[in-house]
Amino acid sequence: MNILIVKLSAIGDVIHTLPALNALRRCYPDARITWVVESAAAGLVEGHEALDRVIISERKRWAKGLLRGPARLRNVSAACRFIREIRDTEYDLVIDFQQLLKSGVPVGLARGKCKAGFDRGMQHMEHSYLFLNRRIPPVSMEIHALRRYLILLEALGIPAPDVEYNLPVRRADEMAADALLAENGMAGSRLLVAINPVAQWETKLWENRKFAALADRLIAEYGADVVFTGGPDDGPVVADILSHMQHRASGFAGRTSLKVLAALCRKARFVISTDTGPMHLAAAVETPVVALFGPTAPWRTGPFGAGNRVIRTGLPCSPCFKRQCTRKDHMCMRGIRVRDVMAEIRRAGILPEE
In the record, which residues are listed under signal peptide (predicted)? Predict the structure, then answer.
């Protein structure tokens, strides 16, 4: 049996689909399972024990390259190669977990007997149901995304009773995380806290000075080693936070792969994060997460698992699901105080006794 999973992005969304992958493997132990994913999130699935093949989409780069630039022909060739790859197998089951036009296109291109996904009625689905021949009745968006994907499988007759990620973190990733910590004078004998301060939406951000004050308190009161994580473009934000601190912390923005970041999160006592991919990565390796939420709904896309905590102001306009604040004051995030975060961390019982 050949199965194709289409879940292109983003990091958190791909992580939320991993339990569905494991459920598929348990139901069809001898199947050949392929996953189509964009390059930014590919590290989360490459090498996964439940997968046989990964097809990587460079959709954004191809689209930009087709319009301009000397690499136009190379991008055309790469896009054609992707189409050949996705069509070189006839699949018994194709599942669209993304429910967007960008996932509907590869679903449409794939040669599949059964192309399954949610029918019209799901929020923001961009007519992706048009590419399906097996349409599952829509479910409430108020159900957590991870649960929605498992409900989709169950509607197809595939049991999905358990939530397992099995992130493909290898010994080499653990060693790389250890080396990075040792390079910054963190040998593992102290309390390690990882903080991810950046998110793609402006409305999801907390003030840099508050992150600095929070880290200083963790260091001063608990002797913590604090590391700030992020992607290659997040270095200036992390540098600004560090410039406001009274104590020493380390900036790892752009210095880890996704798998090394997962290994680093696993070594941390807990992770503090805005609503972004690394928050879900920490939850997937079962490290407690303290998440700061403003414009989005934690019951839909928050850190999954009983040991995680969410802090939000609960303003009447939140969640608004907007990238720009209509109030112009960002109070759903700015209203969160440093002492609120410290109090929640203490309530969670994840700090050592003073």
Answer: none
